[in-house]
Amino acid sequence: MSQTQSVIAPTALKTKLSVDRVSMVFERDGKQTDVLDDIDLEVGDGEFVCLLGPSGCGKTTLLNAMAGFLSPTSGEIRVDGEIVRKPDPRRIFVFQERGVFPWLTVEGNIGFGLSKLPRAEREKRIAHYVKMVGLQGFEKTYPQELSGGMKQRLEVARALAVNPDMLLLDEPFGALDSITRLIMRGELLRIWEAERKTIIFVTHDIDEAVQLADRVVVMSARPATIQQIVNIDVPHPRDISSQRYLQLRDGIFQQIGLAHKL
Amino acid sequence: MNGFSQPGRVERVFWPILATALLLALWCYSVRWSGTRVFPSPVEVERGLAELLRHHVLWGDIVDSLRRVAYGYGAAVAIGVPLGLTLGWYPAANQVVNPVMQILRPISPIAWIPVAIIFFGVGDDAAVFLIFLGSFFPIVVAAINGVSSVPAVYRHAGRNFGLTPPQLLAKVLFPAALPQILVGLRIALGIAWLVVVAAEMIAVDSGLGYLVIDSRNSGKRYDLVVAAILLIGVIGLVLDVLFRRLEKLRSVRWGFRFES
Known about the structure:
heterodimer; A: alpha/beta; 7 helices; B: mainly alpha; MetI-like fold
């Protein structure tokens, strides 16, 4: 295999997030379940990393721990050298489109995290992000009347509006139809290239991971360990029929243990 | 397709009017055929209503009843909603008060009438207290359920944006629970209107409930009794229709299912 395997972020980037020997054990009805087993990972500033693994493998749990919603049973997660103990507006978690507030309009949702700003500044920001995610004309619309893709863009806009350093996306496009999903991937890359946030993106879709990420973190089944980290050294916009792309994708297919050639 | 599945504008008005007219006719002929001298016909009731209006007693009674409901129900909303939100927010506190609430909740407010009279004497306060009791529990329970069924993603999102617990309650949990709270408020308003009539029959000497019992006691004026009963029904309906309009507000609409 020609993939470079490294736990350390490319040296050119300053380390943004470090996961240090993190394990997670859930206890329910007296029964213990190991969810994460000794995870080590470093993510550079402005990097786009995909956590890839089968459903229920614990990748969402890891993302929740990075956000500060869960604390690891052992080990530490640091952001900018600071241990993560609770959620923080500097790193915003994006749920599937279920996360938008149905009682607020598009404007209200985007402005949700901006109540501390002066009114004029807030309105400027809202207008900026409405435009960025292409929701002009829907400012006064309630989420109920938006399509799934629009709700998803709205949630991304709400996250970006508070100017976080990091976005943590949990299978954000999982509920969308395949065409909308393709469009949304392009949109996300465009936004990422414009804003250069650090992005951690959880997915179980191999193609999605290879299309988007700088590095793909392949996780095993539960208890999740990191099986391999694959550098995707194909420049954007990616030609998804190029030799290198296919080679990387097939490598991951094999790695994840799916019988690719049935 | 039959004509009832998608009623047009005309049908929507026509059929209910026809049904009402048929019911009135049935009532009218039943009175005539049975030859009763006690129960009034619709025409007599209409005359009774006109008589009440002429003597200017009706408005006073309506206003008195509505005022008692406004006080009792208003107090139940003002105390019940914040209390329910808090109890839903702190499940530990809810566990402490839940047994007491579950015992008090199924007691008909009517059973409290003697107690209310001991506390407040015969008068407005006793009636207001009974209305408060009747509407308080459905409101508290709706608020508790509303808050505890708010999806975790909304709480997480709120915390992620750096909200303090009071802000989270005001900006996320309350609006998320509001549709369910409105359902409780509407049920409670219906109960309040039931209770005021009962309370007025015993604890005070004005209002629509008093009108019913007084018309019977002073000369068996059953035309006035039935007139008052119908009026109670109509006002109850108006209250409910007005309340339902709240459910169509855009910020709570998402929590309700409307046909089409």
